[in-house]
Amino acid sequence: MAKSAKKPEKVVLAYSGGLDTSVILPWLKETYGYEVIAFAAELGQGDELAGIKRKALTSGAAKCIVKDLRREFVEDYLWPTLKAGAVYENNYLLGTSVARPLIARHQVEVAHAEGATAVAHGATGKGNDQVRFEVTYMALDPALKIIAPWKDPKFTLTSREAAVDYAKKHKIPIEQSKKKIYSRDRNLWHISHEGADLENPANEPKDDLFVISRPVSKTPDKPDYVTIGFFEGTPVKYNGKLTTGTKLIETLNELGGKHAVGQADLVENRLVGIKSRGVYETPAGTILMTGHSALESLTLDRETMHYKQQVALKYAELVYYGLWFSQLREALDAFVDVTQRNVTGEVKLKLFKGRCTLAGVTSPNSLYRTDLASFRMGAEYDPTDATGFIRLFGLPARVAAVVNKKK
Fold first, then answer.
1. Active site (annotated) includes residue 197
2. Residue 199 sits in the same domain as residue 160
3. Residues 242, 163: contact at Cβ < 8 Å?
4. Same structural domain for residues 349 and 213?
5. Is 100 found in the same domain as 212?
6. Among residues of the chain, what percentage have pLDDT more than 90?
7. Which pLDDT score, from 0 to 100, does residue 98 have?
8. Is 333 a catalytic residue?
């Protein structure tokens, strides 16, 4: 009796339809004979997922699974990051970083449902995403085999130009060309731009680089004002009306983009030790972060606020490093949730010429008292109390001065 042919191993590929995963899909099948299941996550990429199933199948995928994860992305990933105040190296609002663990988590779930023994991604061997994907795979199912073609010695497409040539040879439809070859990642929170002329920090970003926002030179000469309502740290209202998180972000992206709000050009320190230059557009994220910070300044006491600033730095590192599914991140969330109990109120913001500035903030839980803050002295504050306080506060300095004088 003839032996039955061995079934090919199933692998679930995190598939965006971009240049890298477009060429990796047929390469996996061609090189190793894998049965490739393409998995795409709808995270608010605009029209990028249009026709993605057809593209994946014509590129050799056995199946293409698309999940709409926008609501989960906003409520379970973006809002915790916003409440934590997490910003990496002063400017990066973690748009790509915070999305990767969500994609990888559902990728693992698809692998379980489809009986796949492996998961794959298209991240390069120089970047952060390889860490974010693979650490998440390990945290959720260490038994799954991890396939990373960019680190495979057989993978000879070691540049984006080579990938373009491979796509043309295999008749794979791509948007990139050797003249237009930026590496981009887009979701509800932001869009990032890397590569090509941006690899030289001396080059100013071109006006035609921007996708969801205008160049500052083409913004209106009249500002727009917007009011965001927060409940326990979570944004819930737009100009006084209740709204969903997804709708709020979409609306603020359009309005903020009109005024070039949220454009950041930075050289950042990657986890792997390489400095990289990226340009980011994060209109809604910038507006919400600015508003949330302003409301916290009104509702958090000094010691909590100062300690939370330290937590924000660590939280940003954890997200950037791909350690979303870690005990420390969960523990920090518990701390942050306590700090947000009184962060309820409304923030008015002005959008103009690339800037988002505070135009007013109110809260029923405000710790700000006009009578105490005023320069006018009143019965509510006895200035002579400050004399003893300052003498005690400055006692170490006085003692040190006496000792140093004797020397």
1. no
2. no
3. no
4. yes
5. no
6. 77
7. 98
8. no
